[in-house]
Structures are given as structure tokens and as C-alpha cells.
Amino acid sequence: MSLELHCHTTASDGVLTPCQLLELAYENGLNTLAITDHDTVEGLKSAKERARSLGIELIPGVELSCYQECEIHVLGYFVDPDNSQLLATLSAMKKARRERIEKILSLLAEAGIKISWEQVEVHSQGGVLGRPHVARALVESGVVADIGEAFSAFLGEGKRAYVPHRLLTPREASSLIKRSGGIAVLAHPGLCGNDALIEKLLCEGYFDGIEVYHPAHTSKMTSKFRRLSKRLDLLLTGGSDFHRPGAVELGGVVVPADTLYNLKLAAGVLGS
Ligand code: AMP
Ligand code: FE
Ligand code: FE
Ligand code: ZN
Questions:
Q1: What are the beta bridge partners of residue 213?
Q2: What is the dihedral of CA 213, 215, 220, 222, to 10 degrees?
Q3: Phi, psi of 213 (to 5 degrees)
Q4: Does residue 96 line the site of ligand 1, with CB under 6 A?
Q5: Res 233 pLDDT > 70
Q6: In contact, 189 and 198? CB cutoff 8 Å
Q7: Rg for the chain, CA atoms, rounded
Q8: How confident is the model over 238-263, as a mean pLDDT?
Q9: pTM as predicted
């Protein structure tokens, strides 16, 4: 059983279209793929058809951007992509993301760096706009050498062109996912850097699971979050957070053999 539970397409900040991503999944021998774009389910439409023709099981997913003391991402699995409440929130988030990019561009202009809306949009390929698209424009303009520098110098939390995305709290995101029929999983908790906050959020009982395995987690973090998932009786998941070829491979993060079974059991979709 070869599984990928966390990846992005051009519907958000990935570089492969949903169809290209599925073709890569097929080449990599994956049986099951959850597409988890940031704040959109748009990519699932074209993915569904391609997945069927390639014989890959597609899990409808999403990764919601939230804010509580720091950036928190919440993964939703088996959400209903036609749920009206989910779609209304995603539409508000799309608008807020555009306004946020406008603010980021003004902050960059204040710092003497002129990046136009068009220079950013060309990288988004019609998907919801995010900081990685601004980062690519900064690299293309020669302002920074690479995407990493764009974040460490300008776009990352606390940097001079940082604008937080504060539309949802983790609690609201998790409730929305559950109302859409899905399973809510706290994404890459190690990236937040505030273990007390993570534990508090998980103890409140809003989440069904925790993403234990992630490329940004050290082995110490992985052990700690695995223990936490057992102690709080939460589902344990993992994935590569694939955005582009060249870094961690699609399907490159191995999760325990019973992960998919447990996720399906919790979602009530076993046998489907
Ligand atoms: P946004 O959704 O606009 O808040 O942008 C967040 C996305 O930016 C994340 O999902 C990553 O894909 C990317 N990102 C965040 N920090 C970094 C970093 N330091 N280097 C490269 N990409 C990053
Ligand atoms: Fe991303
Ligand atoms: Fe994330
Ligand atoms: Zn992600």
C-alpha cells in the first residue's frame, strides 16, 4: 500500500497541475493520494477523472490556513467538496488572500522593491494566491537568490513584508471540516515551534488527528508527536507536503501500515 496524504497542485502553491500530480503518483507506484491544497478544493474536479482512469484512489482533501498566536494549518480528509458552508468559507479566503497579497506588495514597495500584481499572478496559474507566488516573483526579479531567501528576508513570520492570514482559528477550521463530513488533522505541528500551544489545541478535543510524519519534523519531534497522538488517542497521519519535484518525493514519507485504514474508519468510509 503506497500512500500520499499531503500534497499541493497549481490550484494553490504547487507547480504541477492536478492531472500532472496524478501522473507522477502513478509513476511513483502510489495507490492512494489525498490532494490537500491550501484553502481550495478546486483541484479536485480535474483530479477525480484522471485518478479514475489511472486506477488511483483519490481522497478529497484540503489544508486550511489558520492563525492563533502563530500560523497553524489544519488538514481535512474526506471533506465533501460541494458542501456549501465549506465553499462559502473558501471563497471568502480566496478574496482575503488577494487582499493580503496587495498588502504584501505595498510593504515591499515601501522597502523599495517594486513587484507588480501581474508578476505575481503569472506564477499562480489561476490558483489561489499565496506567498510562494510572491517569492517566485522576487526570485525572477533578481531581488533574492531563491525562495528560501524570499521568506527569510521578507515574507516569513515577523519579516518586513509579512502579513498574517487571520480569517480562521484552528477551532473554526476543524469544525468546518467536520461539518463538511471530513476528518480534521493538525498539520506539521513541529513547524509552529510552540509545543504548549499545540498540546493545548489538541487537548481541547477539536482535532481527530495529528500529522506526525512530515519532512520538516526532526526524529525527536516525530517521537514526541507520536507519543502525544497515543496519549490523546488521536489518529496519526503523515505526508510529504509535496509542492514541486526536486525536494521530497511524492509518496516519499512513509507512514504506519494501518494509517489509511484508521483514517477511513474514523471518516466512516470503509468499504467505499
Ligand atoms: P501562504 O499560504 O501564503 O501563507 O504561504 C504558505 C506557504 O509558503 C507554505 O505552504 C509553503 O508552501 C511556503 N513556505 C512557507 N515558508 C517557507 C519557507 N521558509 N521557504 C519556502 N517556502 C515556504
Ligand atoms: Fe504551501
Ligand atoms: Fe502547511
Ligand atoms: Zn501543505
A1: 238
A2: -10
A3: -100, 115
A4: no
A5: yes
A6: yes
A7: 18
A8: 96
A9: 0.97
pLDDT at 131 over 80: yes
**14 Cα–ligand 2 center, Å:** 7
Instruction: Please name the residue whose Cα sits nearest to atom 3 of ligand 1.
Output: 130
CB atoms within 10 A of CB 114: 11
- pLDDT category of residue 166 using cuts at 50, 70 and 90: confident
For the residues 125-153, what does the mean pLDDT come to?
A: 97
Q: How far is the CA of 38 from the centre of ligand 2 (A)?
A: 7
65 Cβ closer than 6 Å to some ligand 1 atom: yes
**Residue nearest ligand 1's atom 9 by CA:** 132
Q: Which amino acid is at 114?
A: K
Does ligand 1 lie within 6 Å of residue 36's CB atom?
Answer: no
Residue ID of nearest Cα to ligand 1 atom 5: 131
How many Å apart are CA 138 and CA 143, to the nearest integer?
Answer: 5
Q: Which amino acid is at 5?
A: L
Q: How many CB atoms lie within 10 A of CB 119?
A: 17
Q: What is the pLDDT of residue 1?
A: 56
* Mean pLDDT, range 86-107, rounded to an integer: 98
Nearest to 210 by CA among 174, 185, 240: 185
**Using a 6 Å cutoff on CB, does residue 132 contact ligand 1?**
yes
Ligand nearest to the CA of residue 7, numbered in listed order = 4
Give backbone dihedrals phi and psi of 48, rounded to 5 degrees, phi first. -60, -50
120 phi and psi, to 5 degrees?
-80, -45
Q: What residues have a C-beta under 5 A from ligand 4, the ion? A: 63, 241
Ligand 1 pocket check for 38: Cβ under 6 Å: yes
